[in-house]
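Issue 218. Parser rejects a valid record. Input:
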Amino acid sequence: MLCVACAALASDEQGRPMRFRNETMLAAGFIAEVDDDGVWRRVDGGACTVNGIRCIAREHRFGGIVVQAVDE
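Output the parser choked on:
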C-alpha cells in the first residue's frame, strides 16, 4: 500500500492527476476521478500510475481507500 502523500501523486495513462474518494458520507462505494482541465470527471476503475509505477486504487475495509502497486 502507498502512503497518503504518494497516493496523491496518482495520474492516469495520459498524465492527468487522479483522486479517489468514497461515494457517500457513510464511506460506501468508491469513486475515481481525473482532473480534466480543472474539472474533476468520474472515470471507471482505479487504474493509475504513481511515479511511473502501475497501481490500482480500490475500496478497503471500513470505508478506506488504498492504492497499491500492481505486480507485473
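Fixed in the parser; the record now loads. Helices lie at 4-7.
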